[in-house]
Design goal:
This protein is mainly alpha-helical. Among the domains are: 7-71, no CATH class; 197-302, Type II secretion system (T2SS), domain F (Receptor-associated Protein, Up-down Bundle), CATH 1.20.81.30. The protein has helices at residues 7-22, 27-37, 41-55, 60-66, 73-85, 88-134, 136-144, 151-184, 188-199, 202-225, 230-240, 244-249, 253-258, 263-268, 275-287, 290-346. Helix 6 packs antiparallel against helix 8. The radius of gyration is 28 Å and the shape is elongated.
Length: 347
């Protein structure tokens, strides 16, 4: 059984397979060739498994659905549509382009969090080194000279001693807390509660909602353009959404459409769905260009996600630099004051 793939590997597999199939190479030989071309052991294992299933008579969509490589319902459904319509290479090409844009957006999100975290981490390590290894060296000198430490230096030495004595315990407690949180998030109810909290968290919530809107609109637009019936396409697109609360809000789409509601009305029942995208969906339904307008909505939301990320970085980076600068500056000034007191005492 193939191992679960990362997002980049799914994109690499989809793009390479689309290229080979567009060159009129039979599916089983294309998969066999991919197994020899791709470097990832997980991808080679997947290709070997798919070759075996396809040569046993299974379709590619069925084989992908049976694997545990991480292909979601939307991906498998699109592949099934491509097989039924005879346009599998074209569908895979469109899927690869969609995956590439989604991966780029995900990388932007990760980068926005990674840089401030690294900056904060190194600053804390620098301050911790001074507290634990530098300041304590002054304590013995002051004791030998029967001088009292300045209050600020005494406070910092106390903090350093506490970190040195109980730092390992604190790290163990932190690790235990992270482990307990991981175990707790295995529960669907807890994941749903966390997802709802994220969506209600002000600017961060709007960012998450826009990101989920990008995935939904892009997936739905691609499937409608490929001829998937709207009810089935909405189900697949909702399954591609990763936030459980957002996905739950889309659960009423199928019933709403079956009752005769328009797509924009059914989507409007989801309180988390971006209102800006709804206006474009309504325009698409009115003009008969729903698939195109869904792609435009995805592009609009994607640009808004990038803008919000940029704004958050503009705010958080200077704030972290300012706070850590003040903290390091306080430590340095305290050390200089301590040295000055020591010099005065020696005189």
């Amino acid at each position: 059984m193939a191992a679960r793939l990362r997002g980049e590997e799914i994109h690499q597999f989809t793009e390479a397979l689309a290229i080979l199939l567009k060159a009129d190479i039979p599916l089983d030989y294309a998969l066999e060739s991919l197994g020899g071309l791709l470097e990832s052991p997980r991808l080679r294992g997947l290709c070997a498994e798919l070759v075996q299933r396809v040569r046993e008579g299974a379709g590619l969509s069925f084989a992908l659905g049976q694997s545990r490589a991480g292909f979601d319902e939307a991906f498998v459904g699109m592949v099934r549509v491509g097989e039924m319509s005879g346009n599998l290479p074209v569908v895979l090409e469109h899927l690869a382009a969609m995956l590439a844009r989604n991966q780029e957006l995900k990388r932007n999100l990760v980068s926005a969090v990674f840089y401030p975290a690294v900056l904060l981490g190194f600053s804390l390590l620098a301050v911790g080194f001074i507290l634990v290894y530098v300041l304590p060296s002054f304590v013995q000198v002051f004791q030998d000279m029967n001088l009292a430490l300045p209050p600020a230096a005494a406070a910092l030495v106390w903090i350093g001693q506490a970190v040195e004595r109980y730092g390992l315990v604190l790290l163990l407690l932190l690790a235990a807390g992270v482990a307990l949180a991981g175990v707790g998030l295995r529960s669907p109810a807890n994941r749903l509660a966390l997802a709802r909290a994220l969506l209600k968290a002000g600017t961060v919530g709007r960012l998450v909602a826009d990101w989920q809107g990008v995935v939904f609109c892009r997936s739905l637009g691609l499937m409608l353009a490929s001829g998937v019936p709207i009810n089935q396409a909405c189900g697949y697109a909702a399954a591609a959404v990763s936030n459980p609360a957002f996905r739950q809000g889309l659960a009423g789409l199928d019933s709403g459409l079956k009752e005769g509601s328009s797509l924009v009305t059914a989507l409007g029942a989801c309180s988390y769905f971006p209102r800006t995208a709804l206006r474009l969906v309504a325009l698409g339904e009115q003009t008969g260009s729903l698939a195109t307008m869904l792609q435009r909505a995805a592009e609009l939301l994607e640009s808004r996600v990038k803008f919000t990320l940029g704004r958050l970085l503009v705010i958080t980076e200077p704030a972290i630099i300012l706070v850590m600068g003040l903290l390091v500056g306080f430590v340095v000034v305290t050390m200089l004051t301590t040295i000055f007191t020591l010099t005065q005492g020696g005189l």
